[in-house]
Amino acid sequence: MLTTPNKKRAVIIGAGPMGFETALRALDRGCEVTIFEAGRIGENMRQWQHVRFFSPFGMNISPRVRQALSGNTLPADDTILTGGEFIEAVLEPMARLPQLEEKIHCGQRVVSIARAGLGKMGLPNHPLRTERPFRILTEDTEGREKIWEADLVFDISGVYGQPNWAGTAGMPACGERHSNQRIVRHLLDFDGSEFKRYVGKRILLIGHGHSAANAIVALNNLSQQAPGTQIFWAVRTDRTKPILEVPDDPLPERAKIANAANEIAQKPTPNIRILRRASLEALWDVNSCLKARLKVWRNFEEIEIDEIVALTGYRPNLDMLRELTAEFSGISEGVNGLYRALTNITDCLAKIDIKPQALQTGEQNFFVVGIKSYGRNSGFLLQSGVDQLEAIFSTL
Length: 396
Ligand SMILES: Cc1cc2nc3c(=O)[nH]c(=O)nc-3n(C[C@H](O)[C@H](O)[C@H](O)COP(=O)(O)OP(=O)(O)OC[C@H]3O[C@@H](n4cnc5c(N)ncnc54)[C@H](O)[C@@H]3O)c2cc1C
What we know:
With 396 residues, the chain is α/β, with parallel strands linked by helices.
C-alpha cells in the first residue's frame, strides 16, 4: 500500500458521503488515498435507504462532488431523494470514478489506531509523536487482520451503528440489555420486507426526533391497513405536538414529516395511544412477548407488547481511538471544539463559523469529520461537513 515517496498517505475511515468528499480533497492535495469501509459503499445510509432526506439534493452535494460526477446525469437540485436514491445517484458513481475505484476497500473494518510504537501515553503533545506514522489495524469480513500505515487519518465512520439506550437519562432500562436482540433501533421499512413482522402486533415506539416522526407516520399507515395493529408511542416531552417544528421551516420535507407526526399525536386513531412524559423503566420477556414498565407522568404503567422500536438517537463509537491522544467532549462525545461552537445552536441550518482550531482533536493529523464529529448532537447536515473540510484542509 501507499508507496510513492514524499506523498502524504491519507486514510479515510468510512465510505459514506463525507468519506468521498474527503477523498476528493485529499487527492487534490496530492495525497495517496485509501478508504476503509466496514460494509458496502454507503453502508449506514443503506440502513435508511427507504427514508427521504429532508434537505433537497442541491444542498446535499458539494461543487467538488458535482464536478467529479460531471459525466453523470444528476437529479435536479430541488429533488428530495431517499437514502437509496442518493446512493445510486452519488455514492455508487463516486466509487466507480477511476481516481477512487482502486482506493476503496469494502468489508474492511478499522479496529484500532495508534502511532507506530506509541500508544496514548507515548510522548503526548511532543513533536516527536507527530513524526511517527499512524498504524491502523483492520479486519475483513472473514476475520483476517492487517496493519496499515498512514500520515493523515480521517475518521468519518458515522454514528448510525451505535444507538443510544432507550431507558431514561441515557442509561439502559432494567432488562433492556438482556432484551437487546428484540429491540429494533433502525428506521423501519414498512413498504418493504419488514411490513409483515408488524401486522396485527402490539408495538411500542419510543422517541420524538425526526426518525421517530418517520416511524409513527409509517406505523399509522400500517395500523390503517391492518386494523388489529396496536401502537403505543412513548415520548419524553409533555408537548401536545411532540416533534419540534421549526417556524416557517425552509425545509418543507422536514416540516411535512413533523406536521404529519404531530397530527397523529394530537388526534390519534383508536389503535394508537400516545404516552406523554413517558420513560422506559424496565423491560422483560414474558413467553413470546415483552412487558414494558413505563413511568408516565408520576404513575407507573405496565404494557404487554410484541415489538419495540426505540429511536432515541445515536452516539459515536470511540473504542478504536483509545490509543490516540485525541480528546472528545465529555458531553456530546464529539469533537471538543465543535461541541463548544454548537452549544445553544438549535437550528441545524444556522450558519456557524467553524474555525480550523475547533476541529483539532489533540492528535496531530488525526481528524473526525462528518456526523461522527457532532457526537450525540443530532444537528449534522452534509453541508456543515463540507464547511468542516474547508477548515481542516486550510491547515494542511
Ligand atoms: C434518517 C436520516 C436522515 C437524514 N437526512 C439528512 C438530510 O436530509 N440532510 C442532511 O444534510 N443530512 C441528513 N442526515 C444526516 C447525515 O447527513 C447522514 O447521516 C450522512 O449519512 C452522514 O454522512 P457521514 O459520511 O458522516 O457518515 P455515514 O453516512 O454514517 O458513513 C459512515 C460510514 O463508515 C462506515 N464505518 C463505520 N465504522 C467503521 C469502521 N470501524 N471501519 C470502517 N468503516 C466504518 C459505515 O459503514 C458507513 O458507511 C440524515 C441522517 C439520517 C439517519
